[in-house]
Design goal:
This protein is mainly α. It has a two-stranded antiparallel ribbon. Strands 3-4 form a two-stranded antiparallel sheet. Strands 5-6 form a two-stranded antiparallel sheet. Helix 1 packs antiparallel against helix 5. The longest helix has 30 residues. It starts with a strand and ends with a helix.
């Protein structure tokens, strides 16, 4: 692939950084365009997205540095070069959620209604951003002989060179695209606030859990050679999402019975 999209003298445009930025921009614009229809102020949604974006970048990089701490102990300056590749989604999700919660509380915005608005946008960012992973060579798959395998040839790639690998970056992008379609469909049939964001948590954690088995990059294990860090976090998110989904579902049923 092409880790560096453009290079002129000392100026380098990394494909990974450009596509991650494009994913964030597309996500923000999509959320903002839907805000008024959902009865939310578009300017506040834009501000919220900015804080989420900043927090997500920090959180995603922080978790990646923790997972790859051995490398960064000997190359500390590389910690700040996130545009070259190296973000863990769940780290970004956790810190992004914290930032969003604090912002919503401060501005007294409806929690679950706003979360439902943002959920499909997160998937747009993931769908585009994962192509950045493909170009950089990070998040690569295990060795395979399937007909759709990809082989990296660029010496700057983070993936092994000259080896047929599962295109896990594309799997992750397609997973996000599929869930996006499902959530947009659900949004038009929503029965209660919180239904979309927790459906996202359930569906994404399931898809990510399965795709992790095709990953070949060193990403840390919660249970050595059995359960990756992302799978472990995914299990927790799945349980939390399922519990919250059914809690809000029951609350909605009770409310309807009373009315």
């Amino acid at each position: 692939m092409h880790p560096i999209l453009f290079e002129f003298g000392f100026i380098k445009i990394f494909t990974y950084g450009l596509l991650v930025a494009a994913g964030f921009l597309a996500a923000i614009l999509f959320a903002s365009s839907r805000a008024e229809k959902e009865g939310l102020e578009s300017q506040k949604i834009l501000d919220l997205c900015f804080y989420i974006m900043l927090s997500a970048l920090i959180g995603a990089r922080f978790l990646y540095v923790i997972v790859e701490y051995k490398y960064f102990l000997t190359n500390p300056i590389e910690i700040f070069k996130f545009w070259k590749g190296g973000l863990v989604f769940y780290g970004g999700l956790i810190l992004g959620v914290i930032a969003a919660f604090l912002y919503l509380k401060k501005h007294k915005m409806p929690l679950w209604k706003t979360a439902d608005l943002l959920a499909p946008s997160i998937l747009i960012g993931q769908c585009i951003g994962r192509w950045g992973c493909l170009f950089a060579g990070c998040c690569y798959g295990i060795k395979t002989d399937v007909s759709w395998a990809i082989t990296f040839t660029n010496s700057l790639s983070l993936a092994p060179i000259g080896v047929s690998l599962h295109p896990t970056q594309i799997y992750l992008s397609l997973n996000a695209a599929f869930i996006f379609i499902v959530l947009i469909w659900l949004s038009k049939r929503k029965k209660f606030d919180g239904q979309i964001i927790w459906s996202y948590g359930i569906l994404y954690s399931m898809g990510r859990f399965l795709i992790e088995y095709f990953r070949g990059d060193d990403r840390g294990f919660a249970v050595e050679q059995f359960l990756s860090t992302s799978q472990f976090v995914g299990i927790l998110i799945f349980i939390l999402s399922a519990l919250m989904f059914f809690k809000l579902f029951r609350n909605n049923l009770s409310k309807n019975r009373v009315s």
